[in-house]
Design brief:
single chain, alpha/beta, 4-stranded parallel β-sheet, 4 strands, globular
Length: 117
């Protein structure tokens, strides 16, 4: 699968392919025209409770991934939709977090790679 990650605050590019916003909340200060997302898949984002608990604290990263993966295990419909697009071509997971290493898009890309078959 051809999965890429990009912050919502970075300019969209023609090579991004199918752009999917994977945040539950729309990124602050970014208009829908600026974001140019093809799909806002908020159902695949971490639950509000998990997002608030994590708070992008790198010390909680391992536990966050474990809990988020458990949530994703129960998100069959949005996961199937995302995998369908990923099998067709390049997909860019768009996210708003400042931390480019410890965020749900990074975890989701890993989850997708594990479930690609």
């Amino acid at each position: 699968m051809n999965i890429h990650l990009k912050r919502a605050y970075a300019a969209p590019e023609a090579g991004d392919g199918f752009r999917v916003l994977v945040d539950r909340l729309w990124p602050r200060g970014v208009s829908k025209d600026e974001a140019r997302v093809d799909l806002w898949l908020k159902e695949i984002a971490p639950s509000t409770e998990l997002r608030k608990w994590f708070g992008h604290d790198p010390a909680k990263w391992t536990e966050f991934r474990k809990r988020y993966f458990a949530e994703l295990d129960h998100a069959a419909e949005p996961m199937a939709l995302l995998l369908q697009h990923a099998r067709r071509g390049k997909v860019t997971l768009v996210y708003g977090a400042k931390d480019e290493t410890h965020n749900q898009a990074v975890a989701l890309a890993d989850y997708l790679a594990r479930h690609a078959s």
